[in-house]
């Protein structure tokens, strides 16, 4: 069965900044069928806002970001958040990530910041893992 996962904004930004790491490798696999990327409106808006603030560092244009997010929405597993679980995690900014994981039935949240999210996500049966671990579980060499 194909796992559904949520990419934290930190993974998206890391993958867009450098083509050398596990974060980029995960972005490169979006739409490949190895996993489904879970999305909610709030998460997509978070991706957009963060990317737009970082355009020079990402060496992207606003149109590039819109095209990427349109692609994610085309191939992703979209869901509406039907209930809020706040407060559940240490960092309030991460609440929308956990809510997206719950709403989409995701098995994993992939992030660079495991500590802030792990306990809250575990209450809902969701694992919080780093990009390299996600690649290993997907059978892809980082």
Write the layout of secondary structure elements.
Layout: E1 4-7, H1 9-17, H2 22-29, E2 36-39, H3 41-53, H4 55-58, H5 62-75, E3 77-78, H6 95-104, E4 108-110, H7 114-122, E5 127-129, H8 131-137
Helix pairs in contact: 1-2, 2-8, 3-5
Name the features.
11% strand, 8 helices, 142 residues, five-stranded parallel β-sheet, Rossmann fold, single chain, alpha/beta, 5 strands
Structure in words:
- The protein is 52% helix and 11% strand.
- With 142 residues, the chain is an alpha/beta fold.
- It has one domain (4-137): Rossmann fold (3-Layer(aba) Sandwich), CATH 3.40.50.
- The chain has a 5-stranded parallel beta sheet with strand order 3-2-1-4-5, sandwiched between helices.
- Helix 2 (22-29) packs across helix 8 (131-137) and helix 3 runs antiparallel to helix 5.
Annotation field: number of helices: 8
Query: What is the C-alpha radius of gyration, as a whole number of Å?
Result: 14 Å
Silhouette: globular
The named CATH superfamily = 5'-nuclease
Spans of at least 5 consecutive residues whose pLDDT stays below 50 are none
With strands numbered from the N-terminus, the spatial order across the biggest sheet is 3-2-1-4-5
Number of strands: 5
Question: H/E element string?
Answer: EHHEHHHEHEHEH
Structural class: alpha/beta
Mean pLDDT: 91
Helix coverage percent of residues?
Answer: 40-55%
Strand content: 5-15%
Largest sheet: 5 strands, parallel
Distance between the termini: 21 Å
Question: Can you tell me the CATH topology?
Answer: Rossmann fold
CATH architecture label: 3-Layer(aba) Sandwich
CATH class designation: Alpha Beta
